[in-house]
């Protein structure tokens, strides 16, 4: 008769502990396939527990396939093959490579995180409470694959008011982050297409396209944007660009180059331009740059934008606007997908936009970041770096380029700055292949403590000596 010590069950109930004991004996080969287990009453009496405890343990083991029952005959050990238990095994110390603990930087110019002081917590939480009170029925309904109609309609109205874009709500597809939307586009447009990205550009795009197994070409840029002739040379079908504020160079593409691109797309069937307008709301001087989508008459522009820049980096709500001709194909091929943004967030954001609070919030952000940028640049002009630095691309978005004239190699500048708590990201790291420029740094300043500006510049200066 098999028996077990049921005195020390830990946090398990009696039947759970008994179940684990039997399972362990089966895995270790102490109980062999075909061997009969004691009847429930006899086993319960031998263990000093209730019949219900044994009955529940047997039922769980049957459900998991470790034992089986035969009517009027009893319970028997099943053949479970060769299984290994991890109990009492030591996991190798370096079996899994986990991210290193984040360094507490004095200034991290790689980060685009939003300060908690800038997020409208009070207004947002009030909106959440109102939605929970007023829209209970709607919250429980499954969202359409493209997102709830209220949000898409409010986005369409906002784009008309802010960007002069005339789009139907049906063209708008909402998703949790642009990376997810890129995946949808690849499925929609086909993995037999050649995708192009800007060089220098956002390196994650190459990884996303690579993860889907689609060919990806790096297209070089000149002083006004992506080189159209290279699109022809490399047989690109779909080009991903950031024309209103190229990342990371900050180039604003002029209308002449935009016209060339639109003509390139119109010259051949199934050519498309993905216009990433990721920080259009945060142009810090002058009016927003008109979109390519607004200029397009051939229906070849896929417009993408996100709320992660204007709300915060952890609010993963993005959207794309499909050309009219792609909308039927999208719903025919991909409508089986569920929208990846919860109804709670969609309805809250929709009301936030509808009541004008989003526009007010964006205006507040612009004022804040304009002041922050100016203070940082003023600290630069006061510093010992002033005669050795050229700044560009500071009029839009939340970064600028800082070109430092120094004999110290770029790698040494970065390492010396790191030792002083300053994280610098070189423009060269955004290039595929060899970079033309050295000691040019992409200065993302959204998360910088501006009260440290003078000390930050001094530490960078020392790193260049």
Q: Please, could you describe this protein's structure?
A:
The chain is built from 16 helices and 15 strands. The model has no long low-confidence stretch (mean pLDDT 90). The longest helix is centred in the C-terminal third of the chain and has 26 residues. With 465 residues, it is α/β, with parallel strands linked by helices. Strands 4-11-10-9-8-5-6-7 form an eight-stranded mixed β-sheet. It has a three-stranded antiparallel β-sheet with strand order 12-13-15, with no helix packed on it. A two-stranded antiparallel ribbon has the order 1-2. GO terms for molecular function: DNA binding; DNA-binding transcription factor activity; pyridoxal phosphate binding; transaminase activity.
Keywords:
465 residues; alpha/beta; Arc Repressor Mutant, subunit A; Aspartate Aminotransferase, domain 2; 8-stranded mixed beta sheet; 3-stranded antiparallel beta sheet; 15 strands
Beta-strand portion reads 5-15%
Shape verdict: globular
CATH superfamily grouping of the largest domain: Type I PLP-dependent aspartate aminotransferase-like (Major domain)
Report the biggest beta sheet as strand number plus sense, adding barrel if it closes.
Answer: 8 strands, mixed
Please give the alpha-carbon distance between the first and last residues.
81 Å
**Count of the domains:** 3
Give a short synopsis of this structure.
By secondary structure, the chain is an alpha/beta fold. The chain has helices at 14-27, 40-47, 51-64, 121-134, 136-139, 149-163, 178-189, 203-211, 228-233, 255-266, 292-295, 327-334, 343-354, 357-382, 410-419, 453-463; strands at residues 67-70, 74-77, 107-108, 172-175, 195-199, 216-222, 225-226, 238-241, 272-276, 301-306, 318-321, 389-392, 399-404, 422-423, 440-444.
